[in-house]
Specification:
It is built from twelve helices and no strands. With 331 residues, the protein is mainly α. The protein has a domain of 159 residues.
Length: 331
């Protein structure tokens, strides 16, 4: 290796490590922005010739923010509606007052001073926790702000980014073209067969909850959407819990009907819709999807539920392209 080439490799490697360290604290938000940009790029391509790339990107970002915050606000409202009257202080709890009165009668001492000291220690611990929550809130605010900016620029400048990537990638043009095509097909296959089907299955299950009169059906619908992304697990735990709830409430007919609904409508949604929307040649085995969901969720957090299977699909597509082009299987 020539000295100049070696120096260039070392320099690029050092800068790459520094770049990773810079991105790492906000990696979840960066991946979320990339995923959203990928999903909405077709809409950007249709709108850009009519209104311009900037206006199109800004409109899509605004629409996404409205939808996301609208859904989050609706869920928060539902959650707050389920919360009853909660005592505002420990001393307001009936149990606290009963224990205090009994101790004063039996021991002849007043407990407020001792409890106050204990509560002071508890308050100090809570203050530390509040500080941590504030720090996490600031990090989340900066992350969301960064994700929105990245989302906008990825939509607006996606074509320029792809051209730059192809120019600096040391691979033949035909290999790059096939690699991009395979990666796009694999990503859409996972999005349709893994995420889209999970959302539909959660909605179908939620309709059954609503008809059966399960409390807070909207919340459990969101939970089932998430669980439906996990192979093997699926919506069964929540459906089973709802069935037990109906039996305990003395509604056996509703419980039986919910079981029948789950074994028919919900099961058909999972089996036939998944087979209908996913391309068999680019689909991943359920075991691979399970590994992608659990492994990426552990490594990346909540965003891993979405990007984990996609990353494994991209790895699979890359290996297949390189194997075919360079005939690695014949070596």
């Amino acid at each position: 290796m020539k000295p100049r080439t070696g120096f260039a490799v070392v320099l690029v490697g050092v800068l790459a490590v520094l770049a990773v360290l810079i991105v790492r604290p906000f990696l979840n938000y960066v991946l979320g922005a990339i995923l959203l940009a990928f999903v909405l790029t077709p809409a950007q391509r249709r709108l850009a010739p009519r209104v311009g790339p900037r206006v199109a990107a800004l409109g899509l970002v605004t629409l996404t923010v409205i939808v996301v915050f609208g859904v989050a606000g609706a869920l928060l409202s539902l959650g707050l509606a389920e919360v009853g009257d909660v005592p505002t202080a420990v001393s307001d709890l009936p149990a606290y007052r009963s224990v205090e009165a009994a101790a004063e009668r039996t021991l002849g001492i007043e407990l407020p001073s001792r409890f106050d000291r204990a509560l002071d220690s508890l308050t100090a611990g809570i203050a530390d926790g509040v500080s941590g929550v504030a720090s996490a809130g600031l990090h989340a605010f900066l992350g969301v702000l960064l994700a929105l900016f990245l989302f906008y620029y990825l939509l607006k400048d996606s074509a320029d980014l792809i051209r730059w990537t192809k120019r600096v990638t040391p691979l033949p043009h035909d290999v790059q073209s096939r690699l991009y095509d395979e990666a796009e097909d694999a990503t859409w296959a996972v999005l349709k067969g893994h995420i889209f089907v999970a959302v539909v299955q959660g909605v179908v299950s939620g309709v059954g909850f609503l008809v059966a009169g399960i409390p807070n059906a909207a919340f459990w619908t969101i939970v089932m959407m998430v669980l439906a992304m996990v192979p093997i697990v699926g919506v069964s735990p929540v459906m089973g819990g709802a069935t037990i709830y109906l039996l305990v409430e003395g509604r056996p007919v509703a419980a039986v009907l919910l079981v029948v609904y789950g074994m028919s409508a919900v099961a058909i949604t999972d089996d036939y819709l998944r087979a209908l929307v996913i391309d068999k040649e680019t689909s991943l085995h359920s075991g691979v999807i399970l590994l992608g969901v659990f492994g990426a969720a552990y490594f990346l957090g909540a965003i891993g539920l979405f990007v984990g299977p996609i990353l494994l699909a991209l790895f699979k597509a890359t290996v297949e392209v390189f194997t075919d082009y360079y005939e690695l299987s014949a070596v």
